Sequence to fold (526 residues):
Amino acid sequence: MSDLIKEIQRRRTFAIISHPDAGKTTLTEKLLLFGGAIHVAGAVKSNKIKKTATSDWMEIEKQRGISVATSVMGFDYEGYKINILDTPGHQDFAEDTYRTLTAVDSVIIVVDIAKGVEQQTRKLMEVCRMRKTPVIVFVNKMDRDGQDPFDLLDELEQELKINVRPLSWPIDMGQNFKGVYNIYEEKLDLYTPSKQTITESVAFKDVNSPELEKFIGDKLAKKLRADLELIEGVYPELDIDTYLKGEIAPVFFGSALNNFGVKELLDCFVRIAPSPRPVQAEERIVTPEKDLFSGFIFKIHANMDPNHRSCIAFLKICSGEFERNANYKHVRFGKMMRFSSPTAFMAQKKETVDEAFAGDIIGLPDTGNFKIGDTLTAGEELHFKGLPSFSPEMFKYIENADPMKSKQLNRGIDQLMDEGVAQLFTNQFNGRKIIGTVGQLQFEVIQYRLLHEYGAQCKWEPINLFKACWIESDFPDELENFKKRKFQYMAKDKEGRDVFLADSNYVLQMAQQDFKNIKFHFSSEF
Ligand code: G4P
Fold:
């Protein structure tokens, strides 16, 4: 096997996603400890926005600034190169997380045993489903009382709309938590309360052996045997291919805080999780090991320094090898570019790299050349399909508050939208610009950045909108008819696609009823 193929196949690029507070940061930290990337607990600067700061977005941006270095955490573990992509915890930045999911090959979902599946997790899972991303579930906080594990599995299946297969099984929980039976490795992992040490493991192939009673007592041994029998009867054996297709999610139980079940999760993860997967470009499928270098920008992190607009563009390498100072084609510009100081993210340090491989994420210092979704290649005309835009949750008209600065305002809006801060719709009826976001915070971010980076002042005006729907039809006449009838509610998105702005659920339902040949989509990719 060539070195290039070996390098690519040992890469595991993934994101940990969860509803805030389920334990994503804690789990990330424990994984880094196992990888030797950090040496003491508490070393990870949480990318989580502190609860007290939720209304103070400047504080949030400061924290986000600090966290650029931890946006990607790379380390080696047992011959594998692990790249963990961090995602912002605050739900107002959910769009960032969606985009990050375009750059990963698999996902670990953390669920709190007491809280079960929460809203944010449900939404993020939708994106994984759309992209058929393989997921593993880690049920956290087993040292606390929570739901019955079978009920939780049902909830996972129903709420996340995916089949599940437990690969470990808890023995009681909360104060009485004894540990887990590791179905995947056929061993008994015993939990020692209040002792944050590596798990005590006992190889245990036959749970019917009377030895089991010695470890966990009569009652729990009986229950464990019955539970495992039920699992074998109800849940299909784990079929790796089905997992890789994103159709079944292996489930582990543990306690990230107590470092319990984390190593087991990691050991299984590196074995079954995919190395970089083939990526569908508009032109063809790109194969990581066979094709020359290609990659796409999935995130742009602006520097908050108002004096110069410098950013870091995050590139996911889809195929081949990237080399420093080589000439690569910026497909949208149709011109060749060289990068003299690409950075890689190892542990918590950012350092210049000479080479990187498919699966890796590198940071490219940028002064406005890139926008989200841009493709770089060794020369070929390739366009990677980006992530669809989702209908925003909140809408406002953006207006110029300083007539002398309208140029600056328009440039600022364009660039911030290229960065993916929010979505822009232009109303076809009155030409007014509408900004759509997933949370109130983005409006404040946009206003502040327009002023400080572009010297432009904007003001917001309310608009009553329920959803933005991308529309299409196999019947061009009907589409034209619809657009004429709904002229006042028609807009174009940034790519010039037709969008219907429905001001209420009722209006949307009526439109769907009256125009049966028109398809209304809540995301821009269909
Ligand atoms: P997040 O990134 O998903 O938002 O969650 P984070 O890891 O910050 O964890 C949220 C809270 O849950 C933290 O407590 C953390 O210590 C706790 N936690 C994580 N894993 C476990 C676990 O296995 N068992 C128990 N009992 N708690 C767990 P906090 O008090 O909010 O913060 P901190 O002061 O401990 O940092």
Remarks:
- The longest strand covers residues 294-302.
- The chain has three domains: 10-71+80-178+237-272, 279-377, 394-521.
- The longest helix spans residues 211-234.
- The domain at 10-71+80-178+237-272 is CATH 3.40.50.300 (Rossmann fold).
